[in-house]
């Protein structure tokens, strides 16, 4: 038996083990696992607890926003936008929406609730909710940047086939984390962008929001659902903070 070879092999094995352990635990540039919060329902399917009309915190939500069959249903004009009582910064939001024929609505985030801003969209970027086939807004933007799932008037969805037409449920996932945002529609990532910096500033400059002092500036704020005067439904709304 060659004891020298056995001894040499043992030394090599020990050295390799130490190297692997050091790589796994001691490398300063090793990626860190992102700690995510627990999923939280922000609509219980029965009431509008946790929501209020814009600039009307503590007051009952307009009765034109109703809860029907486990969904929030906007069934008339003049209801006003509703938004969460709580602010969110980095988050992952999931929900489903269904729009009526010729309908228009939207989901805003990082909304700043302040009387000097008359509407939610003066501060909060919007994920478009739309009947692409019948609402004129779909053709009024540039290259589809006002169609369903778009970053409204700024970036179009990369895959128009992800959208389901009026009367059908669309599942949305919005991820905002550390200066980056992503929109998913029915399981497909369709929009990605920075939420601040030169690229963001250029997108704002080339949009209808040019010169709006507070648009997209906040890195934390309310989640809002838009009253655009058309019937729309939202359900299965949940969020987790990142």
TrEMBL record:
Keywords carried by this UniProt record: Signal
Record carries keyword Protein biosynthesis: no
Signal peptide range: 1-24
GO molecular function per UniProt: hydrolase activity, hydrolyzing O-glycosyl compounds
GO biological process: carbohydrate metabolic process
Residue ranges the record marks as coiled coil: none
Residue span, 3-keto-alpha-glucoside-1,2-lyase/3-keto-2-hydroxy-glucal hydratase domain: 38-240
Cross-referenced InterPro entries: AL/BT2_dom, ConA-like_dom_sf
Name the record gives this protein: 3-keto-alpha-glucoside-1,2-lyase/3-keto-2-hydroxy-glucal hydratase domain-containing protein
Organism field: Fibrisoma limi BUZ 3
Lineage: Bacteria, Pseudomonadati, Bacteroidota, Cytophagia, Cytophagales
């Amino acid at each position: 038996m060659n004891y020298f070879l056995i001894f040499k092999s043992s030394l090599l094995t020990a050295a390799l083990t130490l190297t692997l352990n050091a790589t796994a635990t001691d490398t300063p540039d090793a990626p860190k696992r992102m700690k995510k919060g627990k999923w939280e329902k922000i609509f219980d399917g029965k009431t509008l607890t946790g929501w209020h009309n814009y600039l009307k915190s503590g007051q009952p939500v307009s009765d034109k926003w109703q809860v029907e069959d486990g969904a929030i249903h906007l069934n008339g004009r003049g209801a006003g936008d509703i938004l969460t009582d709580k602010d969110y910064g980095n988050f992952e939001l999931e929900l489903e929406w269904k729009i009526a024929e010729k309908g228009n609505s939207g989901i805003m985030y990082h909304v700043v609730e302040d009387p000097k801003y008359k509407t939610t969209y003066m501060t909060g970027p919007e994920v478009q909710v739309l009947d692409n086939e019948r609402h004129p807004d779909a053709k009024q933007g540039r290259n589809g940047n006002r169609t369903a799932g778009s970053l409204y008037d700024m970036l179009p969805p990369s895959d128009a086939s992800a959208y389901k037409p009026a009367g059908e449920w669309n599942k949305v996932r919005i991820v905002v984390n550390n200066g980056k945002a992503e929109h998913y529609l029915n399981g497909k990532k369709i929009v990605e962008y920075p939420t601040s910096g030169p690229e963001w500033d250029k997108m704002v400059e080339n949009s209808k929001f040019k010169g709006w002092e507070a648009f997209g500036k906040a890195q934390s704020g309310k989640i809002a659902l838009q009253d655009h005067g058309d019937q729309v439904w939202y359900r299965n709304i949940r969020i987790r903070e990142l």
